[in-house]
Write a structure and sequence with these properties.
Blueprint: H1 3-32, E1 33-36, H2 40-44, E2 57-62, H3 67-70, H4 73-84, E3 89-94, H5 103-107, E4 125-129, E5 135-139, H6 154-162, E6 174-177
Parallel strand pairs: 2-3
Antiparallel strand pairs: 1-6, 2-4, 4-5
Length: 195
């Protein structure tokens, strides 16, 4: 093959590879990166936390196998250990079975989402109640595909609640990597059971 033909073939292969990368990024973003919209039901309907009031409570809404969850697993495990040592109570929702869940998530009690939250925007996401049982935060862990203590929306909320400050972040929309919950993972048929 002459030099011109080799360069042309190499350039065409490079352009096909680049187009493939752009398409893969677009496909992932179009499929998973979407708005976590907090509809009126997050603001107007009081939802009791998973446990009796008296402690700060965190609900992980999770689904194993979701590509969005992979970027949060290490942080969720670390955050759950750290804050549980400070008296914060944790539960999980979304995926009923512990199959495919790792570490701390698999050990948490399951709490089905209440019927008033039947249109939950997706997972991974979180809900946080203050010690009096009032919803303080609802939404994604962070605004990207990965979450760390530095990029987390959760970290400052729980720290503020532990310091005794009032938090109410239930009305702001955000964009995050979210997988749709399967229909059998959305809500309880009746009111949630305390565990």
């Amino acid at each position: 093959m002459n030099r011109w033909l080799r360069r042309t073939v190499t350039l065409l292969l490079l352009l096909v590879w680049l187009a493939g990368l752009v398409w893969a990024y677009w496909w992932f973003e179009a499929r998973y990166v979407r708005s976590f919209e907090r509809p009126a039901f997050f603001q107007g309907v009081p939802v009791a936390p998973p446990f009796a009031p008296g402690h700060i409570q965190v609900l992980h809404v999770w689904q194993a196998g979701c590509p969005c969850s992979a970027g949060h697993e290490a942080y969720v495990g670390d955050m759950t250990r750290r804050f549980a040592a400070q008296g914060v109570q944790f539960a999980r929702a979304g995926q009923r079975s512990a199959a495919g869940l790792t570490g701390e998530l698999a050990a948490l009690p399951y709490w089905p989402l209440p019927a008033s939250w039947e249109n939950w925007p997706g997972a991974p996401a979180i809900a946080i109640w203050d010690a009096s049982g009032e919803l303080a935060y609802v939404g994604p862990y962070s605004d990207g595909a990965h979450c760390t203590a530095g990029s987390s929306f959760v970290e400052p909320v729980v720290q503020a609640l532990l310091a005794g400050r009032k938090v109410d972040i239930t009305r702001q929309d955000s964009v995050a990597c979210l997988c749709k919950l399967e229909s059998d993972q959305r809500t309880a048929a009746t009111s949630p059971a305390k565990r």
